[in-house]
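Hi Y.,

Following your request, here is the sequence exactly as I used it, all 73 residues.
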Amino acid sequence: MTKIEQQAMEAVIGIHREMKKTNGPDWEQRRYELAKEIFLRRMVHFGLTTIDSDIEDSVAWADRLIAELQKGK
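Below is the corresponding structure, written out as tokens. Let me know if you'd prefer a different format.
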């Protein structure tokens, strides 16, 4: 394999890796969206207990949901 062929192959592999990353879900964005939605729904249905515990619980539920969704890969 020539040096040019090697460089071309490495470029294709790099492009493939980048495309694979961009085609997958943005889990941080999903986490934010889920935590926000859970927090808002808790406020509507249960009212606020303490802001810190409500936030922590919402993020914990979002993390749990994300973990389950990622298992399905």
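Residues 3-23 form the longest helix (21 residues).

Thanks again,
Q.
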